[in-house]
């Protein structure tokens, strides 16, 4: 089985489990956050992928990290992937799951980087604004990224909208 086929199979299984549990949107959102966290943390990635640590030990890291902060299904799914030795594939698996989930809802993913977390009201307004700007129905996935400094950077498909303070400072620097 190719890596892409394996990633797709895992994503499909996770999708089916989350949907059967009736917690697809919550689990999808939490898995997305976990995947982005894993991508940005070398230490976490090393802890979850170290083959010298028994699977039970790596799964204990997941339990400690997510514990009561995540839906039980999310914790179980991440623990399953880590226990199977596929922690490196979590971002790809989750991206496929999110792609399938949003596609079934007739939406496209809007990956938004913000210096601070957004509340539900802000997410709704942002989804509406991005939908108008792109002509697509979007599902907003927020990544908290302090390097943005302020404002937002949104990516919907191939379209990038950079309204970050960092981008404006770079423009100002180039103009001077």
Fold and architecture overview:
This protein is an alpha+beta fold and 176 residues long. It folds into 2 domains: 3-100, Peroxidase, domain 1 (Orthogonal Bundle), CATH 1.10.520; 106-175. 61% of the residues lie in helices and 13% in strands. The chain contains 8 helices and 4 strands. Strands 2-1-3-4 form a 4-stranded mixed beta sheet, with helices on both faces. Helix 1 (3-20) packs across helix 2 (24-40) and helix 2 runs antiparallel to helix 6 (90-104). It starts with a helix and ends with a helix.
CATH H-level superfamily of the largest domain: N-terminal domain of the delta subunit of the F1F0-ATP synthase
H/E topology pattern: HHHHHHEHEEEH
Mean pLDDT: 89
Question: What share of the residues lie within helices?
Answer: 55-70%
Poorly predicted tracts of residues:
none
Determine the CATH topology of the largest domain. Peroxidase, domain 1
The radius of gyration over CA amounts to 17 Å
The CATH architecture of the largest domain is Orthogonal Bundle
List the total number of helices: 8
How far is the N terminus from the C terminus? 54 Å
Q: Give a quick account of the main beta sheet: strands, pairing sense, barrel closure.
A: 4 strands, mixed
* CATH secondary-structure class of the largest domain: Mainly Alpha
